[in-house]
Design goal:
By secondary structure, the chain is mostly helical. It contains three helices and two strands, in the order ααββα.
Length: 98
Amino acid sequence: MKKMDPAKAEAYFKYRTTMILIYLTIGFLASYVIVFFARDLSSITVMGIPFHYYMGSQGAVLTFIILLFLNAVMSDKIDKKFGFDPEFVDTNNRTEDH
């Protein structure tokens, strides 16, 4: 495996950490903040269902599924941006299991 430039590795780590924090924040908002403000949000309806009830029954799960797909797509883009392709792994230095 090739060694990576430390500045590039630091930028990659910072980028990935920022994305993870954004996903965790959205997940926290979808699961906990909606519950904290359920009474205030009861006037909003989604498909005829009060918003807080919808988020508790389906919305939070849908949000997490969307975040998983978004994370996969963004991870691929970030990996390509920083040069992490399958060609990045040097096939000449493989270790063999004995």
